[in-house]
UniProtKB/TrEMBL annotation:
SUPFAM superfamilies: Fibronectin type III. PROSITE patterns: FN3 (PS50853). GO terms for molecular function: cytokine receptor activity. This is Interleukin-22 receptor subunit alpha-2. Receptor for IL22. Binds to IL22, prevents interaction with the functional IL-22R complex and blocks the activity of IL22 (in vitro). May play an important role as an IL22 antagonist in the regulation of inflammatory responses. It comes from the Eukaryota. Belongs to the type II cytokine receptor family. GO terms for cellular component: extracellular region; plasma membrane. Gene3D superfamilies: Immunoglobulins. The lineage of its organism: Eukaryota, Metazoa, Chordata, Craniata, Vertebrata. Pfam families: Interfer-bind (PF09294), Tissue_fac (PF01108). Keywords: Disulfide bond, Receptor, Repeat, Secreted, Signal. InterPro entries: FN3_dom (IPR003961), FN3_sf (IPR036116), Ig-like_fold (IPR013783), Interferon/interleukin_rcp_dom (IPR015373), Type-II_Cytokine-TF_Rcpt (IPR050650).
Length: 214
């Protein structure tokens, strides 16, 4: 029995955490500290805070992976959720490891917008597309993150003649197409953008740079 108890403890999953980007939500954990814990199988359950019964996540029942997709299970984005994981090895089950409480609306990370750049000889037109959530409208198109939050686009220009690192904010607002004028022909400019949430004073990462030579 003691050996079993030791095995139970040594294969128990560690660091059970939700990771979420634009409401694409996965549960991650690390194997127990025993070397043989790498061969364990994992079982995932979840529930809304306040519910008494745990639900099994069928696709993550007896898996060898350390990741479980819970996007669909956490789609009520204002609700707080918990998840838990246990491991099994050689017929021995560990106790459950519990995640912290996770509320998608508050904790998902908002990604950067997609940026497309079209240039003429003295201006750049920037087209912006907000990141999309995994949730779909009835017609099948994905719902953008701007439906869930009051988000602004922030657009920055980098003049490569001056300094690669020096970004100048040229626009903040909700327009999806903006024009930057009175630029110098023959100069290379890069555009980066991010999403900004004034309410929480919270920004996404920068988009990848789109560069153009006028």
């Amino acid at each position: 029995v003691l050996e079993n108890q030791d095995l139970q403890d040594s294969i128990k999953p560690q660091k059970v955490e939700f990771h979420s980007l634009n409401f694409n939500t996965t549960l991650h954990w690390q194997p127990g500290w025993a070397r043989e814990a790498r061969d364990a199988l994992y079982f995932v359950q979840y529930k809304v805070y306040g519910q008494s019964t745990w639900q099994n996540k069928d696709e993550c029942w007896g898996i060898s992976s350390n990741v479980c997709d819970l996007t669909h299970e956490t789609s009520d984005i204002q609700e707080p959720y918990y998840s838990r994981v246990r491991a099994a090895l050689a017929g021995v089950y560990s106790s459950w490891s519990l995640s912290c409480r996770f509320t998608p609306w508050r904790e998902t990370v908002i990604g950067p917008p997609m940026v497309t750049v079209v240039h003429s000889n003295k201006s750049i037109t920037v087209k912006l597309q907000a990141p999309q959530s995994p949730y779909k409208r009835k017609r099948g198109s994905k719902i953008p993150m701007t439906n869930y939050y009051d988000l602004l686009y922030q657009v920055f220009i980098i003049n490569n003649l001056l300094d690669e690192q020096h970004r100048v904010l040229v626009y903040e607002g909700k327009d999806k197409v903006i024009k930057i004028e009175d630029l110098r022909p023959g100069v290379s400019y890069c555009i980066v953008a991010k999403m900004y949430m004034p309410k929480l004073d919270h920004s996404s990462a920068y988009s990848s740079r789109q560069c153009t030579l006028l």
